[in-house]
Specification:
With 128 residues, this protein is α/β, with parallel strands linked by helices. It has five helices and five strands.
């Protein structure tokens, strides 16, 4: 099976380290960005199969970055999963209305994250 590329846009180094460890459990190649602007550049230059987007980022936030992705003809097909500390239903509703494929609240379970990634990518071969 060919490894799927996942772009992780996350500014917190501890969270990025956790993502590295989690994604090594699946058939994934991880690309990293510490801010939305860098993440958008990476996505344009080498479109990933999926983006894990932190919502609270320095500079441009994850909501604004996802609006740009979903408005871009070349990038809009890429599913974006929100990774956020915002747990209120209104936050989830507002976020999902932007075009996110899924919404995961920090702290999250590794199993739930991997299942959400696999489901979003349509990958039934990775059952945990």
């Amino acid at each position: 099976m060919t490894a799927k590329t996942i772009l992780v846009i996350e500014d917190n180094e501890m969270n990025m380290k956790l993502m590295r460890a989690v994604l090594q459990l699946g058939p994934y190649r991880m690309v990293e960005a510490a801010d939305a602007e860098t993440g958008l550049d990476l996505a344009r230059n080498d479109p990933p199969d999926l983006i894990l987007m932190d919502i609270q980022l320095p500079g441009m936030d994850g909501l604004s970055a996802t609006r740009i992705i979903k408005a871009d003809h070349e990038l809009r097909r890429i599913p974006v999963i929100a990774i956020t500390g915002f747990a209120l239903d209104v936050d989830k509703e507002n976020t999902m209305n932007i075009g996110f494929a899924a919404y995961i609240v920090k702290p999250f379970s590794v199993k739930a994250l991997l299942e959400t990634i696999a489901a979003t990518l349509g990958d039934s071969s990775f059952d945990h």
